[in-house]
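Lecture notes, part 5. Sequence design as translation. It can be helpful to think of inverse folding as translation between two languages: the language of shapes and the language of residues. The source text, in structure tokens, appears below.
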């Protein structure tokens, strides 16, 4: 299970966020990390060595398919419209989310329910800068 908190700076989707209100929803599904993506940027120093100035690790999470009513799916779809989306993972780690998506998982013959999956990305960023103080050079 994960908890998703979402809110905005302005009032949208019928919610008055200007009062500090935040939506919270618990998703009772298994989530797994589907993909890791590592990116880094930097410069080459005088010795020809790469010195990273920015590093980023992106994890993509995907839920197991779960069944909900079409109105619940619609409510989940509106999450992606919000500026701030934060997940609290089962281990207690909380991260802001990028690319929140709700996708149809499989066909169900019953028109009263739909099967969906949630996908989202979190990223961990490290900005590095090595500044040399030339006043310390003898």
């Amino acid at each position: 299970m994960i908890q998703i908190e979402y809110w905005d700076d302005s009032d949208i989707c019928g919610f008055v966020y200007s009062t500090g209100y935040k939506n919270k929803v618990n998703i009772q599904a298994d989530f797994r990390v589907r993909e890791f993506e590592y990116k880094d940027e930097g410069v080459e120093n005088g010795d020809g060595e790469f010195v990273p100035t920015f590093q980023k690790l992106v994890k993509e999470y995907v839920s197991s398919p779960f069944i909900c009513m079409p109105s619940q799916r619609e409510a989940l779809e509106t999450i992606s419209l919000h500026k701030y989306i934060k997940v609290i993972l089962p281990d207690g780690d909380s991260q802001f989310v990028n690319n929140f998506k709700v996708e149809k998982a499989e066909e169900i013959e019953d028109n009263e329910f739909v099967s969906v999956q949630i996908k989202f990305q979190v990223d961990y960023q490290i900005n590095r800068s090595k500044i040399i103080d030339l006043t310390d050079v003898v």
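The translated text above is only one of many valid answers, since several sequences can fold into similar shapes. Residues 104 and 116 are 4 Å apart (CA to CA).
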